[in-house]
Design goal:
The structure holds two protein chains of two kinds. Chain A is globular. By secondary structure, chain A is an alpha/beta fold. In chain A, helix 3 packs across helix 4, helix 3 packs parallel to helix 5 and helix 5 runs parallel beside helix 6. Chain B contains nine helices and twelve strands. In chain B, strands 6-7-8-3-9-10-12-11 form an eight-stranded mixed β-sheet, with helices on both faces. In chain B, strands 2-1-4-5 form a four-stranded antiparallel β-sheet, with helices on one face. In chain B, a hairpin with a 2-residue loop joins strand 1 and strand 2. The longest helix of chain B has 18 residues. Chain B is globular, with a radius of gyration of 21 Å. Chain B starts with 5 loop residues before the first strand and ends in a 10-residue tail after the last strand. Classes of the chains: A alpha/beta, B alpha/beta. The interface between A and B is large, with 40 and 42 residues.
Amino acid sequence: MVKDVLLSVQDLKKYFSTSSGKLHAVDGVTFDIKRGTTLGVVGESGCGKSTLGRVILHLIPRTSGEIIFEEEDISDVSSKRLHELRRYMQIIFQDPFSSLDPRQTVSNIIGEPLSIHKMVRNSEDYIKRVREVMDIVGLARRLENSYPHELDGGRRQRIGIGRALMLNPKFIVCDEPVSALDVSIQAQILNLMQDLQKERQLTYMFITHNLAVVKHISNEIIVMYLGMIVEKAETKELFQNQYHPYTKALISAIPRIKTEKRQERIILKGEITSPINPPDACRFANRCVYAQEKCFCCAPKAEEVTPKHIVACHYAKEINGLN
Amino acid sequence: MESSLLKIKNLSVEYTVNKYTAKAVNNLYLEIGHGECVGLVGETGAGKTTSALGIMRLIPDPPGKIISGVIEFEGENLLEVSEKKMRSIRGSMISMIFQDPMTSLNPIMRVGDQIMETILLHENISKVEAAVKAQRMLEMVGIPAERYNEYPHQFSGGMKQRVVIACALVCNPKLLIADEPTTALDVTIQAQVLELIKKLKVEFNTAMLMITHDLGVVRDICDKVNVMYAGSIVESGTVEQVFDYPQHPYTQGLFKSIPDLDTDSERLEPILGMMPDPGNLPQGCAFAPRCSKSIEKCRTERPDIIQLDDGHFVSCFLFSTEEE
């Protein structure tokens, strides 16, 4: 059972110092990801989902908390070990327009990890490996010597995926990988990512604000609000039963394509509040229709409301009629 | 049928840079009735924004050029009116909301004054009266009038978009063109703005052209919808007709490629290939190279627009009658 978990995060925190105080970008996040599965992370802009992904990969140093990768505590690894670990942990970025070096050719971008990690002996081997990956992600050979600006968004995102796959990683943080793409291209990339996962037993942490995409690709989902997890459940369960008032509003707010499924939309008052020096209270309280006195004076703890369904709300049971 | 508010016939727009000519809009037909909300959907580069700018006569020339067509607004061809007249139409008769509320407001001007500017430009009233009207408009879009003297940077994204909407509607235009008005916003904020647009649409009885790539938004607020591909409308009809019975292979493909919250699909069915290069459009139907149902004729001839049902049009040879 324990062996099944690839990545485990315990009470992870990241505070940024700003002139007006501490910005709580990620504030006490705990979760596990099982090998070969996808964890979806959803939330609106500013909820800390991208920061979370970057802190896990040590692209931004954490403030406190533990990160355990394959039973190894990597919270404070040496830079030498981190360099080795990078082979197993990769990231795909949102914007395929700004995340690729404009002065490098496609084959150089995809092959760069090989030279950094000294994984090839000679240039023939290098070209061979690059071509293999290009085939896998569906990039035509003739594009080898093209530059990113010559390609469209879908192809560029394939380069980003190819680069991340080059070293045969175990874990990939996908930070909004399809948000910048058109729907017909988005579907191509999502299918590619699913195929790769099946073939290579990849584990994804899929960060997005698009609930339809996350529902399609994830096994489990965490919903974040101002740096905290407000709800966590398996995908099917979450879309059937939302217990946190924020999740309820979020899911009801999505414009549906099918009318018969249209439900009463919950319109939230106000907007996301400032994450700088937040008080010890439920961070959603000032937008919540169910908020009571208690919500404004102490922060709710994440609790298991029904098996494997975790909610951080004082009144989760009451408002949902659960015991 | 009563006469429509806006009627676009055979509009073609090209952009020429050096020797490269991109055919952004090709033989576009579009109609909007009084008080109607019409959606224009399509992917990046389909020509949605260019069509909208064409209506406003705001296409930068050079490089852009309207090659042919008629844009009839209340019976008058907008492509023939003088620039002076056009300026008086913009903002008072037809106004436009742009995608990015962060950049469409003047950062060094108080938000109230920005709304007032529109009023003073089009209405012959005093500054004091205009300010009162601007305040009333702010309240209407859900912003307290006390915030009249604040600057855009003091507002959040959703609030800025409300200000932009206020600017656009303050002169009670007959047509509002909204170019991806909620794309830059978060879902819960998008829901607020969509509710607001719905409410104001009824109050002002404004016709609307809603440009978006989000099919959910169209279903939510539009009466009719036009699906655009490579500069032309491939399918149009009421929202029910197009969403429940899509006919054009592109529209069908579009629906299949979107992950939907209400259906569980293991795999998406993407449309194969890419959008054609607007500088080098296929000779026949622009969608033919990606279409699984294409026939010989599709590659050589452009399909006409065919009426399937009352008000449901499709531009595809699969539906042409055999008698020809």
